[in-house]
């Protein structure tokens, strides 16, 4: 929705200074920012290895315009803005859960369930349009009685019926054939969603808006990350030392942004592995289920092509043995081959042919 705090959060996350003003549709063009993923394990590894530099892995955030009822038909900033959602891997849906008479709500009152329903309806309507266009094409192809064409047409009909009933494409069962074809359509409701509840300073507990959002998210199996954008904006201004004092004062353990980033990681099924050497200690991101060569490919395509093996130490072993040499001595260094599926926190050294 417009004016719920998306750009305020974006600024806090990215330390950018995009306009975040108290009027709906303040944001028109999407803002893009790259954010380091906070990971205390990097500091632990760096303390052992004492590398020349430490490089975190990153997540890219896109702050888009608000949508309103009728966006899919061109209301508000219209259809074009739905297209900005097509380019992302996952949606962090910011929902207003704070009361503030001075901050305009486009519907006139704070109502998370209604806001979420409006947005989800717009996304579904946009998808129905896309599916209808695909169906028109599929109907033509199906005339030739080609097996795949017929199957695809039936899939589209089924998807259409279920989206029409309010079931997001992402929640619908799909086999590999369907998943592949559906991906090509770039449907909006196929994307994983988490909710970011923008609450007031004292709105983390006993907040009926937050409770309402949690209830509907639970029904969708979606995660809710409560943050206060106003506080996050303040925290982002502070240097590291002041920040932890400020958080302690508020009774918080960490900035909400860290929770958003980690929730995003979980939502996308991502995991982190590390490389550690005298030049750099670095965190990398892969999709859960990635094999060792695929992980190597994140660093360099040559590493994947010429992959021989990965000398692998789990993060816990690496720390317990105080580094690679210790882990090797203790028999905690594993030689993993092409089939190895990377685990969260693996410290990896790739051997490859050039
Ligand atoms: N009281 C309060 N005000 C907030 C909070 N977060 C954002 N605001 C205010 O809400 C107004 C809108 O914030 P933006 O971040 O521009 O909202 P947006 O969702 O990006 O809005 P559009 O770009 O118009 O879609 C600004 O005046 C913010 O200062 C919050 O946590 N508490
Ligand atoms: Mg904005």
Brief summary:
This protein is α/β, with parallel strands linked by helices and 354 residues long. The protein is built from 14 helices and 11 strands.
The general outline is flat
- Please give the alpha-carbon distance between the first and last residues: 51 Å
Write out the strand line-up for the largest beta sheet, numbering strands in chain order. Answer: 2-8-7
Roughly what fraction of the amino acids lie in strands?
15-25%
Explain the layout of strands and helices:
Blueprint lengths: L5 H9 L16 E6 L3 H10 L3 E3 L2 E6 L15 H8 L4 E7 L14 H31 L4 H18 L11 H10 L7 E7 L8 H12 L4 E4 L1 H9 L2 H11 L5 H12 L2 E7 L3 E8 L4 H8 L1 H5 L1 E7 L1 H6 L3 H6 L4 E3 L10 E6 L2
Parallel strand pairs: 2-8, 4-5, 5-6
Antiparallel strand pairs: 1-3, 7-8, 9-10, 9-11
Bound molecules: guanosine-5'-triphosphate and magnesium ion.
Give an overview of the whole structure.
- This protein has helices at residues 6-14, 40-49, 79-86, 112-142, 147-164, 176-185, 208-219, 229-237, 240-250, 256-267, 292-299, 301-305, 315-320, 324-329; strands spanning 31-36, 53-55, 58-63, 91-97, 193-199, 224-227, 270-276, 280-287, 307-313, 334-336, 347-352.
- It is an alpha/beta fold and 354 residues long.
- A three-stranded mixed beta sheet has the order 2-8-7, sandwiched between helices. The chain has a three-stranded parallel beta sheet with strand order 4-5-6, with helices on both faces. Strands 10-9-11 form a three-stranded antiparallel beta sheet.
- 34% of the residues are buried.
- Guanosine-5'-triphosphate (GTP) binds at residues 2-8, 20-22, 24-27, 65-66, 98, 100, 103, 198, 200, 228-230.
